[in-house]
Amino acid sequence: MSGIPTLRSTPTEAAPTNPFLRWFMPEVPLARVAVFRVFIYLFIIIDVLTISGDVIAHGWTPEFYQPLWLARFLHIPAVSVLGAQILLTFIIVFSLLAAAGILQRLSGWAVALSFGAWMFYTQGYGYVAHDHMALVIAAFVLPTVGTARFRDVGTASARAGWALRVVQIAVVLTYFYSVVMKWIASGNITHWANGAVIIWALMRRGAEWSKPFLEMPGLLIAAQWATLVFEFLSPVALFLKGKWLYGAVAFFFVFHLMTYLALGIHFLPTVICWAAFLPLEKLVPKRFTSMGTA
Amino acid sequence: MEEKKRRLLTSQDPAAQGPDPAPSSASRTGEPGSDKSGSDRPGTGPSARSKLSTPVKPLSKVSIGWRIVVPAVAFVILTCGQFLNTNDFFPLGSLTQYATAKDLNGTVNSTCIEAQFPGEDEPRRLGFNAATVGIERGDVESQLDRVIAHPELLQSMADSYIRLHPDEPKPETMVLCRTTTQLKNGLAVGEPEQTTLAKWEVR
């Protein structure tokens, strides 16, 4: 008996025979990945131009470079302004190609590697933000799917299902492990929940309209407890279906909208990856699909 | 064999075959969008397989194997990153943002950067961000001890400011400062106090 369960080989698709594999590598329409890919690659362009756009400025401050482990292992030096501009151009060009579905595997890997390098240069100067975890993972798993087109609404793929599932897991772990970290860093999770973290954040970077909440510490403590609860429960999203799943995704969207309006913390790189939970192939107009053209 | 012969004779793409006798796993696993009618599901209706569809090869044992092993290793690294409390394994480091508990009767510190310009009486507060001084506040706060021990690092911020603001006067002194607000039961008490952490005469 083979240690690794195999996929049943049929002329049309491979169906996992093991319940875990059926969950971990579900067959989903390739078109879902084609649409998700557009979301991710276009967002990467926005990201490198805005959210992680500090890399070019980091070219002026090489003394602050604190390379992360992989950057040290690969001997990646501090970025120069010219180097950052070349890298930026590279990312934008290949992201556009990948989003357009041109040379999909090649352009996808080119984005993954160049965006990975860009991440070393935005996160390697002291502060490491954890909102990019799922996005970086998405950039690396998408090229493994291979060719996926909008017309592939009727073509199921376990490769596509695996890539999306990995992104989904990365998304929920971003929340779940942040609870674990709060527990570890605080010693006692109630210290965090009953403490002044939101007060601290509002004082440091809160919007003017949110300043009155500083007069209501009880409300902010309640918000901390609520945050803990839904971050802890976030893995449940992996098993939700239909309206419950849509509701969960909408809930996290609203949560991040609120933190953005109040604190300027948008978490958009993670927010965009919530799209991996959705049946994105439904966005493809019928006339572009296999079924529409058959 | 018979199936292969038939495909060769009809020149049919493997992805353009007839209906799969087994139900799609998308419907079995309750994937979003799997609540469609049978003919609308992948591989369940004759019309669902046009020649325009991308052919899908079954996953080999090797393909399945690395798709299990690589995420498992990543999961272990991510988990270790939490318990070792290190960001060094980015993107699989610890998720430390806002993870530290804050005392309702403690203080709220915020690091600031100021510059003394020629002809001005007081140092002026600058935006502590990459667009102004080439680096974000969070980056400097993450290596604050190092910056205080080596105030010459402020020269780099002054140089960035000059390059990023070529039409502005050149700063004479850079001041790394901190504002501290005292809390009592979660409410701010009094005005924030400012202290100087490091000073550097710009060369």
Automatic annotation (TrEMBL), chain A:
Keyword Nucleotide-binding attributed: no
Query: Which controlled-vocabulary keywords does the entry list?
Result: Membrane, Transmembrane, Transmembrane helix
Transmembrane stretches, start-end: 30-53, 73-99, 132-150, 162-185, 191-207, 219-238, 244-277
Name under which the protein is recorded: HTTM domain-containing protein
The species this protein belongs to is Brevibacterium permense
From TrEMBL, chain B:
Q: Looking at the record, which segments are called Disordered?
A: 1-54
User: What keywords were assigned to this record?
Assistant: Membrane, Transmembrane, Transmembrane helix
Q: Which residues cross the membrane?
A: 64-84
Q: Does the keyword Membrane apply?
A: yes
Q: Which residues fall in a compositionally biased region of kind Low complexity?
A: 11-27
Domain of life from the UniProt record: Bacteria
The name this protein goes by in its record: Uncharacterized protein
Species source reads: Brevibacterium permense
